[in-house]
Amino acid sequence: MATMVQAERAKVTIKDLKGKVDPDWCPGCGDFGVLAALKQAIVEVGLQPHQVLTVSGIGCSSNLPGYLSTYGMHTLHGRALAVATGAQLANHDLKVVVTGGDGDGYGIGGNHFVHAMRRNVDLTYVVMNNQIYGLTTGQLSPTSLKGMNTKSTPFGSVENPINPLPLAIAAGATYVARGFTGQQKQLVELIKGGLQHRGFALIDTFSPCVTYNHDNTHEFFKQRTRKLEEMGHDPTDFQAAMEQGRLWGETIPIGLFWKREDLPALDQLEPVLDHGGPLAHRPLGIAADTAQALIRELM
Amino acid sequence: MRRIDLAIGIGGAAGQGIATPGDILARIFVRRGLHVNAYNAYQSIIRGGHIFLTLRTSDQPVLSHGDKIDVLMPLNQDTMNRHLKLMRPGSVVLFNSDTIKPGVVPGGVQLCPFSVKALAPSIRGDLVQNTIALAAVLRLIKVEFETLEEILTLQFKRKGAAAVAENVGVARAGYDYAAAHFTAFPFSLPEAGKRLAFFEGNQALAMGGAAAGVRFYCAYPMSPASGVLHWMARHARQLGIMVRQVEDEIGVINMAIGAAHAGCRAMCATSGGGFALMSEALGAAAMMEIPVVCINVQRAGPATGVPTKTEQGDLWQVLGAGQGDYPRIIVAPTNIVDCFKLVPVVFNLVDKFQCPGIILSDLLLSEGRSSIDPAQLDFSVPIDRGEVIGLNGSTPPANGFKRYVVTDSGISPRALPGTPGYAHVVATDEHDEDGVLISDEFTDPHKRQAIHEKRMRKMEGVLPLLPPPQLHGPADARVTLVGWGSTEGVIREAMEQLAEAGIAASTLQVRWLVPLHADAIVAILRACRTVIIVENNYSGQFARYLRAETGVDADGHIRKYDGEPFMPHHIVDGVKAILTGATRLYVPVHEIQV
């Protein structure tokens, strides 16, 4: 029945997904590519705009929900995953997509990042990783490489960057991928895979900042990235996924690193959701006999 | 007239089993229809330290844990040393003479030593003395043994018949020993009528949430708010409530906001430290116009402070939580039943006005326990979700849904994610009626002003829906005691004591803090002769708030910030000191070193 209704609806097109305003990103920003790929993935998966809730934090890339016609939440800096978790559990019929940047997700939101993954919340998390703080005009990010000169590290950063992929695999994410805005077709497939995956999907995406990061440019990644699918990588091989995730140098792998489908998502594990549909749709109020039972406990 | 007014104090180290005899006594009292108020003074320790439970019962409502102890049950030497000197003539001290020595005994105090070795020679374990003392005290107030036998049987049933027989046997020995050797009280515990219920404030808050239709509850453990989490977790599956323990309080409030936006009634509870972490997100809820309820169970601060002690020290934190101006509702329940009844009211308000609601409790209220007529626990409360559109497949406006449409009331109908035709973006950035950001590309000052005024205008609609505070007591009283939140009971009891001492007093207890019925309060207080503000903090947070909002400067202040709640006589002494002109600020010294 649901499939019939689905079929009767007009097929969603890229145009239908256009938001109320156009992006205000700098010309040439990688985030345009992520937005385009996300729209394409939504179209190909066959989701209606109202079935999707796109949640973001704060930063250039977190403006993305405003450029889509889905439901959107533009939350506080670093808090998108926490908000998205609440929304997904409250209405597990929604397809909840989270978008944001490396500072938002891996820096200020780091705690929520780790815990959302260990819980395997059914979220598709697209991180536009540009290895710099853009909206605050060019300071060090958690993924900025050691030695990088930024406004906050004018003599070069002495710190090691975070590597989100092995971190995600170890923390319990069940779909871990890396894309590059210079490889649109692959990026669409990776996001599609994330949308179709039941559990926490991370799609870390190289989305170069043309204004503040002159080290990790489009050209930089074009020369170094190599597709995992062409390297014979098996995304169900944990050891291989960790090893590929750690590679960084003349070859930087992109593609699907890790996927497992045998673990239920958090909402599937929650007995309260076994029957009765999404929590948000259930009637409020307590039956008289239940109320009496609660009072009896106090007597 | 009160037929009885009996306070039992049970003290010992954490882990000595103070809760069980306390629970059994409370159960016996409320089953007879007697009123009970209980306060447990404890420390942030799992084993050791000093815990002192005060359980006060009467045939009339009990407003506070009172001033005196009639029966002291010290379970260790330390408790005896701390409390014996405070016992008054006519009181009784029951103790195990094998291990505890009384020391200097005040006149008129009946010492009731018993030997565990003699009464229960074959039983090992430290809990035996508790059972004997419990049986003895019941004998002293002439409760028939069968009552205790029934409760012990229920309590130990799971451990088998041998355990039941052993405990009932020990209790019998203690009961008979007390009959033979101790002088009973001149009264017997009355039957006061209908059986009452007994619960703590945190349970009341959680049950209020359940009544309101909370479907999503999340928290990070923090004393003294964890009781709400525990109740919710225990009842989650029975009631269909999603309960989550989150990684930190920032995650808590944001998760609740996500669930609330998706359409659930969502609630969370914490104490001051956790609340501090939630501050920014409360503003976010107001900015996105998402209804969410947060309970702050205050404990003594600042910082980690005194985790197991009470204070009303977070008023200014709550008033100032988060950056910028934003609409929100702040309420401080004044007693444990109020905790239950207010939660659904707050949910209806925040749903109607699409803003955060903050319930300001404290340790005294949340971990204090009180008897309650079960008829007062009405779960069939009115539920008003406010203006939610698109639920029944209504046609969205042709020119598109404006989530933040400017209205006279400031309230813009909301649509839940998943509703076809109403897709929109909510944002913590400033936005226009469409939800489109105006903060980045071109900050239109006129749009900013209009949307900010729209949000803030909602507050004007809240105040008329809130009942103004009422003066309690004689209109021409010599002194008017003003309090807020949890101190209602003890202030009213102090008022009764003042009347007995020939000082006519009235009280004004403020419940709704934001918005504040400033005009009504001014009208009341301008007609009062002497205004004294009573609060559990150092700086007079409410006094300063009241002055800021009303211009009313009180004549005197009674403040306590040692971690323990007021006892009635602290307030009485303070009023007397202020009326004689000895001081304008009275800070009582807490007598019992807990």
Structural description of this entry:
The complex is a heterodimer of chains A (299) and B (594). With 299 residues, chain A is α/β, with parallel strands linked by helices. Helix content of chain A is 33%, strand content 15%. Chain A has an eight-stranded mixed beta sheet with strand order 2-1-3-4-6-5-8-7, sandwiched between helices. Chain A is globular and about 70 Å long. Chain B is α/β, with parallel strands linked by helices and 594 residues long. Chain B folds into four domains: 5-181, Pyruvate-ferredoxin oxidoreductase, PFOR, domain III (Pyruvate-ferredoxin Oxidoreductase, domain 3), CATH 3.40.920; 198-376, Rossmann fold (3-Layer(aba) Sandwich), CATH 3.40.50; 387-466, no CATH class; 471-586, Rossmann fold, CATH 3.40.50.920. In chain B, 37% of the residues lie in helices and 19% in strands. In chain B, the strands form three sheets. Chain B has an eight-stranded mixed beta sheet with strand order 6-5-4-1-3-2-14-7, with helices on both faces. A seven-stranded mixed beta sheet of chain B has the order 9-8-10-11-13-12-19, with helices on both faces. Chain B has a six-stranded mixed beta sheet with strand order 16-18-17-20-21-22, sandwiched between helices. The two termini of chain B are 32 Å apart. Chains A and B meet through strand 2, helix 3, helix 5 and helix 11 of A and strand 7, helix 7, strand 8, helix 8 and helix 9 of B. Strand 2 of chain A pairs parallel with strand 15 (425-427) of chain B.
